[in-house]
Design brief:
heterodimer; A: 409 residues; 13 helices; 7 strands; 70% helix; B: 249 residues; alpha/beta; five-stranded parallel beta sheet; five-stranded antiparallel beta sheet; globular
């Protein structure tokens, strides 16, 4: 009998712990007790579940008896003994100890319940009210029972001591409600703090991830893995042949990469810097594509210090290579020109390649350029793409000159 | 007999690298043609009919995929491609070999070993793989021609491509033949390949493209060749061996 009880208890504990670790779905046909237990586990937050689990693991099986129940019974029994010695007429030894144990243990159970169920207490103010009502009712029932046992008429007794009974009940109830309410409040605060710090940590992590992702995307957009791989392959081949061009190609690649990294950190860049980078890029591409690519850059000295948003010109030149020169059977040439027209700064990328295709103007690169221009200059700047006289494409950046100082500031 | 090899790659240094590595690791292979774009690759295939073709996927004119489609299981194909996760996934699912650029010696050695094993067998049918690759590899689509500009005397005639009966190579020029007239253009026939709709214009010979709508019938000339009779033109066009499969009933 004892053995079976203990086994059942252990099974129950094990199951509860397993459920807390990983709450299963509600299964139909389970006993009502299991259903209720599972439901309340489901209602708990992650934090609460963790705490309850820690508690159960700490006081599991014999540990609970050793550390919690037996010490409490011991202390309460001593209090009961004291009660007997203090008022020997009212309480026998057994009565005193029994009373103290029942009261103390049930209060302890209440505190435990409140400790893990504080959200219900916080949510429903009438739970506290229930304590008061129940305690008062209990006091009346108790008093009536005592009267009955002593053989006194109940009504008369009630009239005589009813006020005191009511007062005792209400006071006890209020005390209970107060203690439990306090526990609930303290716990709720702890929970909120923990929850807030967890959320803050998650938010920090999310932001950090977002930032590094966007930086990576920018880097990727700037330096395509294909570009790096194929360029390094070309360097390797030249080096194996012992060709002096290997060093020149490496120098161009370094210049391009350095320029790209600088531009990634800056919103604006001077035309001189940007042309230098684009030239390095085209030199790299020329070594790779051989006679299929010819190019020329023209930057008037008086425009060299003018600013333009970073990474835009390269996008246009890359497009000219990718959609113009690469698909053209015999390759072609690219001309990059900056000039001033009225109050506008024009930067043009002209290629003699495959020409404009339907839907060509809706590429991601161009859309990005357009979006950034709108952000920086409002409606004052534009990018356009058209077919040029010789059949290739002409991409044109139009930037307001007057805006320059503002944008740099 | 030494295996005959075609190499098609548009970047000169990558091309040299592949040539050097092949010379080192497969010395018995005979490189019969080196092409720098898709149309040259296809033309070289027709001229030499090599047993093995190394094809870069991204090439101007015709993509490596389109060349492989035309070769249609008549040569062992090894694709050469810049890294692309989707393409690699498609390759991994198939039996066809591929090399990532820049090509590494170790990888080439493995591909060569596999080729040597397969040499005597029938080349793999690539149709399924090509279908999968075409879906994931962004190959720049060459725009289809609508008009052809031909100089006739002092005039420049604009010819609607749909009206052309056939194109035929004529030494440096290409004959553009219409029902009632014809013109010569300077563009070599192979350069027209990518710009013509392969559904409408069938290549039937290294030097001939014919408008399907103009064909009346095909008749046998000898064991290897057919000839085509046109609806609106007296000329008969030879179908070379590489293309007779188009007319198999």
């Amino acid at each position: 009998m004892w053995q079976r009880l203990r086994d059942a208890n252990r099974r129950f504990e094990d199951e509860t712990i397993a459920w807390l670790r990983n709450p299963p779905a509600l299964e139909p046909g389970a006993s009502r007790l299991r259903c209720r237990l599972l439901k309340s586990i489901h209602e708990m937050s992650e934090f609460e579940r963790r705490e309850l689990l820690a508690f159960l693991l700490k006081y599991r099986g014999w540990n609970g008896w050793k550390r919690l129940i037996l010490p409490s019974v011991f202390v309460l029994s001593i209090v009961g003994l004291n009660l007997h010695f203090w008022l020997p007429a009212k309480f026998s030894i057994l009565e005193g100890m029994l009373l103290c144990n029942v009261l103390g243990l049930s209060f302890g159970l209440g505190v435990l319940g409140a400790w893990f169920n504080y959200r219900k207490i916080q949510r429903n103010w009438y739970t506290s009210f229930k304590f008061v009502v129940m305690a008062t009712l209990g006091a009346f029932v108790g008093a009536s029972m005592v009267a009955l046992v002593d053989g006194r008429p109940i009504i008369e007794t009630m009239i005589r001591i009813g006020r005191w009974v009511a007062l005792a009940g209400v006071t006890t109830g209020l005390l209970h409600a107060l203690v439990l309410g306090l526990i609930g409040r303290v716990r709720a605060r702890a929970f909120e703090l923990e929850n807030a710090s967890l959320q803050a940590a998650a938010e920090r992590e999310r932001l950090a991830r977002q930032l590094s992702e966007s930086q990576l995307r920018l880097l990727e957009a700037q330096i395509e893995p294909h570009f790096l791989f194929n360029t390094l392959g070309a360097v390797q081949q030249l080096a194996e042949q012992g060709a002096p061009k290997a060093a020149a190609l490496t120098a161009s690649l370094i210049q391009f990469l350095r320029g790209s990294l600088t531009q990634m950190r800056n919103e604006m860049v001077s035309l001189a810097e940007d042309f230098a980078r684009v030239e390095a890029y085209l030199q790299v591409m020329q070594v790779r594509m051989g006679e299929r690519l010819r190019f020329e850059l023209q930057l008037p000295a008086e425009l060299a210090a003018r600013q333009l948003p970073s990474m835009m010109l390269l996008t246009l030149v890359e497009n000219a290579i990718k959609h113009g020169i690469e698909p053209a059977l015999r390759g072609g040439r690219i001309d990059v020109v900056a000039r001033q027209e009225a109050e506008m700064l024009l930067v043009e990328v002209r290629d003699s390649g495959a020409g404009l295709k339907e839907g060509g103007a809706s590429g991601v690169g161009l859309a990005n350029v357009r979006e950034r221009l709108a952000l920086i200059y409002g409606g004052e700047a534009a990018v356009s793409l058209e077919e040029n006289e010789t059949g290739g494409c002409l991409a044109r950046l139009q930037l307001p000159l007057a805006h320059k100082e503002e944008a740099r500031a | 007999m030494n295996p005959r090899v075609l190499i098609a790659e548009d970047e000169p240094l990558m091309r040299e690298r592949l040539l050097n590595l092949l010379a080192e690791h497969w010395p018995e292979a005979e490189v019969v043609a080196v092409a720098e774009n898709g149309v040259d690759a296809w033309d070289a295939y027709l001229e030499h009919e090599p047993a093995v073709a190394f094809l870069d996927i991204r090439m101007p004119g015709l993509s490596g995929l389109e060349v492989a489609e035309r070769i249609a299981g008549r040569a062992h194909v090894v694709f050469v491609t810049a890294y692309d996760q989707y393409a690699v996934a498609a390759f991994e699912a198939g039996a066809v070999d591929y090399l990532l650029k820049p090509v590494e010696a170790e990888r080439l050695v493995r591909a060569v070993a596999r080729l040597q094993q397969k040499m005597t067998a029938q080349p793999d049918d690539l149709a399924e793989l090509l279908g999968r690759l075409k879906a994931v590899v962004p190959v720049p689509q060459v725009e289809r021609m609508k008009w052809i500009k031909a100089t006739v005397g002092k005039q420049i005639k604009l010819i609607n491509v749909e009206e052309v009966l056939f194109f035929q190579s004529d030494t440096k020029y290409t004959r553009v033949v219409l029902p009632d007239s014809e013109a010569l253009i300077r563009t070599p026939l192979k350069d027209l390949l990518g710009g013509l709709d392969p559904e409408q214009f069938w290549q039937i010979h290294r030097g001939t493209m014919v408008n399907v709508n103009a064909i009346a019938a095909a008749e046998r000339v000898d064991a290897e060749r057919l000839q085509i009779i046109l609806k609106a033109h007296p000329e008969k066009l030879i179908v070379s061996r590489a293309f007779t499969h188009l007319f198999k009933a």
